[in-house]
Amino acid sequence: MATARKTRVAILISGRGSNMVALMEAAQDPAFPAEIVLVVSNRPEAAGLARAAEAGIPTQAIDHKAFADRAGFDAALDAALRGAEVDLVCLAGFMRILTTDFVASWAGRMLNIHPSLLPLFKGTYTHRQALDAGVRLHGCTVHFVVPELDAGPIVAQAAIPVRQDDDPDSLADRVIVQERRLYPAVLALVAGGRARLDGDRVVIADEAPDGVLFSL
Asked: Which residues catalyse the reaction (predicted)?
């Protein structure tokens, strides 16, 4: 019996690639429905590139500073992804705002993880934003990417309680644990066809594991 073709995934990073490592480790399971075929960074010095190379995954550095504008960078990125026959893109600490044309060309095929319970606390410094707002729950969100920043259809979220003595660093430490758990689970759902876009919402075929809040 022929083995089902795995979804070919590229991971985009700008730094150490913490969530990238979680995705790579998950993909080592023969039953995982995706394979990581490329890691790309806009920063040649990004530590995550070496980590991916050590794992035997092809890497590419596309320095955004070498391009006159965002469109030029995005064209080079698009060419790299298409050259690797990528089906799905995962942003994992990728610190670039992509052009509308690039996002449109990968619509429904690009995921991002954000360290807040969207639509709360978009942008940066999310843990400080959560503390300043006095929320009792904080966490992370995996969503499909759309042109508006941190605004795409939500696939899944994981929440943690905010403690009385939390500061941004302690919150970040606990949220990243949930990120490393959530992102591989969502990639498995999307790559395996169990999560799909229905207009501006995501339909999930499975019930959520404990501690994970799926958008239904």
From this structure: 114
pTM for this predicted structure: 0.92
Measured in degrees and rounded to the nearest 5, phi and psi for residue 133 equal -80, -15
Would you list which residues are annotated within the binding site?
17-19, 70, 95-98, 112
Q: 């019996």: which residue's tokens?
A: 1
Residue 19: both structure tokens together: 């969530």
Choose the catalytic residue: 64, 114, 127, 143.
114
Domain ranges in the chain are 1-106, 113-216
pLDDT more than 70, % of the chain: 94
Active-site residue flag, 127: no
What pLDDT score was predicted for residue 193?
93
Q: Does domain 113-216 have CATH number 3.40.50.170?
A: yes
Length of the chain: 216
Q: Is the pLDDT of residue 41 over 50?
A: yes
Which positions make up the binding site for (6R)-10-formyltetrahydrofolate? 70, 95-98, 112
High-pLDDT (> 90) share of the chain, %: 88
Give domain 1-106's CATH architecture: 3-Layer(aba) Sandwich (3.40)
Q: What angle do CA 35, 39, 44 make, to 5 degrees?
A: 170
